[in-house]
């Protein structure tokens, strides 16, 4: 996922997983969601699971690209400003007119943009080149054969593949499918994500805060990040730090989720780390330390009954509670998992090289993802790099990567930078 790093450096001689090893372990446990047929409006934003071909040629008939007169090019070959060609106008063809029309030598028909070219005609003279007359039109410029004509198949041949499986149905692709006559397409559905934030300190934004409490930002942030990555996401906020309550709260969501995400409660010690306590017992969720900062404590596994072939098992991520850690962990681990569920290849964060405008520090043996502001080819590390510093996260548009083997980099060094979505 990042260049300039050696996957196993951090793992050697330590209990930490590398970012890459952890990503690989996650991806090996994710299977894409089953394809389903969705009508175009519902398929918007989903990833195609089939190729879409042209049912007919595009366009399917020769037509005019301008408002003007359909003519035989030979009749206007000598037309000029001082010696116009004059043709008898026999009628008008509007877009959608399916009548059988014909242009004979010496005649013209008014024609509108998108209207079918009449038999006999082989060029369209734009109205701007004429005196715009309804009975006998004077034409002041010659028009070559094919002028202002959009030929059948000029965009795509009948049967041609227009969209390939794996393509996300963005507005342009929706238009292509509709133009190919498709009412519905086979796609992988948007993954349904449920985000649960845990912590006795959490208070719902919009309600008063008492000292010692904080407003829950993680559940909103992670649900929004999941949507940005193609999911439909809902939140179940403020699950209390009650060891008995966590598992039921999670199990309640299983039926509505393709992926579960918790935040908080996975730190290294205490009895208040209820997510770790509740899920650790199950044996299907593994907690690890990953050689990164922020986001060292991670948990991933599956939850649920698990019928035939693992059906009913829902992948679960337990993200750290500190908001910056949760955010970075989402982008590094949950985002690739959401891509895999969708069969998508367009969700990798763009990686660029940039010059540091100031020095940075990083703990030895861990890869840092520092919040920064990328401006062209320069990147400025933000001064607040604490995992709780959500205000600084809000100013960042990029993550500066400092490899595991570096503890500091001076200004003007070139670094890898991930552009945030
Ligand atoms: P934890 O991982 O539960 O030990 O939490 C680590 C830190 O993140 C603590 O300072 C928590 O108050 C904070 N935190 C946990 N959950 C959230 C949340 N949903 N929104 C904002 N901060 C949180
Ligand atoms: Mg907590």
3D architecture notes:
The protein is of the alpha/beta class. It is built from 8 helices and 28 strands. The strands form 8 sheets. The protein has a 6-stranded mixed beta sheet with strand order 16-13-17-21-20-18, with helices on both faces. A 5-stranded mixed beta sheet has the order 8-5-7-6-9, with no helix packed on it. A 5-stranded mixed β-barrel has the order 22-25-24-26-28. Strand 24 and strand 25 form a beta hairpin. Helix 1 packs across helix 7 and helix 4 runs parallel beside helix 7 (323-342). The longest helix has 20 residues, at 323-342. It is elongated. The relative contact order is 0.14. Mean pLDDT is 94; it is low at 1-13. The structure holds adenosine monophosphate and magnesium ion (MG). Magnesium ion binds next to loops. Magnesium ion (MG) is lined by residues 198-199, 241, 264-265, 272, 321.
Supply Rg.
Answer: 31 Å
Report the strand count: 28
Distance between the termini: 16 Å
Strand order of the largest sheet: 16-13-17-21-20-18
Task: Give the arrangement of secondary structure elements.
Blueprint: H1 19-28, E1 36-39, H2 40-43, E2 47-48, E3 52-53, E4 63-64, E5 68-71, E6 85-93, E7 107-111, E8 123-126, E9 136-139, E10 149-150, E11 161-163, H3 171-179, E12 184-188, E13 192-198, E14 202-203, E15 214-215, H4 218-228, E16 232-239, H5 246-251, E17 259-263, H6 274-280, E18 285-289, E19 292-293, E20 297-303, E21 314-319, H7 323-342, E22 351-356, E23 360-361, E24 367-375, E25 378-381, H8 390-393, E26 398-402, E27 408-409, E28 414-419
Parallel strand pairs: 6-7, 13-16, 13-17, 14-15, 17-21, 19-24, 22-25
Antiparallel strand pairs: 1-12, 2-12, 3-11, 4-10, 5-7, 5-8, 6-9, 18-20, 20-21, 22-28, 23-27, 24-25, 24-26, 26-28
Bound molecules: adenosine monophosphate (AMP) and magnesium ion.
